[in-house]
Design goal:
Layout lengths: L14 E5 L5 E2 L19 E5 L33 E4 L2 H6 L4 E5 L2 E2 L4 E2 L6 H11 L7 E5 L3 H13 L3 E6 L16 E6 L5 H12 L4 E3 L6 H7 L1 H10 L5 E5 L4 H16 L8 E7 L4 H7 L10 H10 L18 H8 L2 E5 L1 H15 L5 H15 L9 E5 L4 H7 L7 E5 L6
Helix pairs in contact: 2-3, 2-5, 5-7, 6-7, 11-12
Length: 426
């Protein structure tokens, strides 16, 4: 199907927020970041409802804001790049697939994508920061295992937005900037063997202070809808909603975003009415979501902290290790998997490394560890005949080209303000 697009010139979108528990609709606010409905009777996401029922992307020169119809933004920011989607020939031939589409976020100039931090986290950063108007009266607080920190540091430095980022000390090697870091950006590390969950706890404590505001993670509609542009890229390239969606997950926020984007595309009416199946993966032995879904239980399985920390140390894709993901919350990952008849895969370190080489050999770009996990899950699905060979498949490569970018460009360190140990007062 060929769709004619109307070129957009206005970036501010018209939207309201709907509570998935109560059904209550409310306007957004410009003086804070609204993350929930305080009157809801249960934990539930908000979801953005857009006045524009049909998606009319702008030109590629508008970057991520070419999808502003379905982004909760109040302005545009400089420097964004949208994900790109292309039909695979190399990897598709190697796997015997006739309709494999790769959605790539990262640095690959020949294909028209220039995300200098090498990750689709830029999609969420440009959306979250554009939800806040110019002159926003608070410092944004973000917790990260590495990729999100890099993306927000880049976007906030480029646009002089006050930011505090908290990352585990062990992950500081992944934190750098493609340009000199602006004075508005601050970096704190969680020390003493801390992991991502510890960084979230410290970030939450800072966010309660006057003058600070939590970014909100999965609860932030701008984060989810920014990540959902991967599916918008795929559908507008293919001309229809993919039948299968492959992605590796840590928190599952990107998968929730993909589900929500597919729902909007169904309602649009021009992209088909099929349900896009979520085919998700985790890196063994950190299998909190995989094991919970295997039981088809809304509640996460119980794993002691020491075991979770040990598993985090052992996995190849360390960013896939969120110990408190948005699984049970209404509108969260459990609901997304139920609604799409989803599947999950456990991918070993060895399989991920092999898949990374397979992708680079057949497609010509280096990919991140988490994207390698997703690729390995696709290999397993084809091997196990979980997907028809002629199915329309979307492989979400959530990070790539990072090795190449660092070979071709200078990168800049981010000054560390403080290391907070477990017994320290924040």
């Amino acid at each position: 199907m060929q769709v004619s697009w109307i070129m957009k010139k206005e970036f501010m979108s018209d939207y309201t927020l709907t509570c998935l528990s109560s059904g209550r609709s409310m306007p957004d606010r410009l003086d804070t970041i609204v993350l929930n409905n305080p009157q809801a009777g249960e934990a539930a996401f908000l979801r953005a409802r857009y006045a524009q029922a049909q998606l009319n992307p702008g030109p590629e020169s508008e970057g991520i804001y070419r999808f502003a119809d379905w982004l909760p933004v109040n302005r545009s920011l400089d420097g964004s790049s949208a994900p790109i989607t292309y039909k695979s020939t190399g990897l598709a031939t190697a796997l015997g697939l006739s309709n494999l589409y790769i959605t790539f976020s990262g640095y690959w100039p020949e294909r028209g994508v220039k995300m200098p931090t090498g990750t689709f986290k830029e999609c969420e950063a440009y959306s979250v920061c554009a939800r806040m108007p110019a002159g926003f009266p608070h410092r944004l607080v973000v917790a990260s295992a590495g990729n999100t920190a890099r993306a927000f540091i880049h976007v906030c430095s480029q646009n002089h937005i006050p930011l505090l980022v908290v990352v585990p000390e062990a992950n500081l090697h992944a934190v750098w900037s493609p340009q000199p870091v602006a004075k508005e950006v601050q970096l704190i590390a969680a020390g003493g063997g801390a992991d991502y969950f510890d960084a979230i706890r410290i970030a939450d404590e800072f966010a309660r202070r006057q003058g600070y505001v939590p970014e909100g993670g999965a609860k932030n509609v701008a984060r989810r809808d920014g990540m959902g542009t991967t599916v918008l890229s795929a559908a507008t390239t293919i001309g229809r909603i993919p039948e299968y969606y492959f992605q590796a997950i840590g928190s599952g926020t990107g998968a929730i975003a993909a589900w929500e984007a597919a729902l909007r595309l169904e309602a649009d009416g021009r992209f088909g009415t099929n349900t896009m199946r979520l085919m998700l993966s985790q890196n063994a032995p950190f299998l909190l979501l995989y094991d919970s879904w295997a039981r088809r239980s809304r509640e996460l399985i119980e794993i002691d902290d020491e075991t979770e920390r040990q598993h985090t140390e052992e996995i190849y894709a360390k960013v896939l290790s969120n110990r408190r993901p948005p699984y049970a919350i209404k509108g969260g990952l459990y609901d997304a998997l139920i609604a799409t008849d989803g599947e999950m895969y456990a991918v070993s370190n060895e399989a991920a490394v092999e898949a990374s080489g397979l992708f680079e050999t057949h497609e010509g770009a280096d990919i991140s560890e988490e994207a390698a996990v997703a690729t390995a899950s696709l290999v397993a699905a084809v091997r196990d005949q979980d997907v028809p060979r002629d199915a329309i498949i979307m492989l979400n490569i959530t990070g790539g080209g990072l090795r190449r970018y660092m070979q071709e460009h200078a990168v800049y360190p981010v000054e560390l303000q403080r290391v907070i140990m477990p017994d320290d007062e924040v």
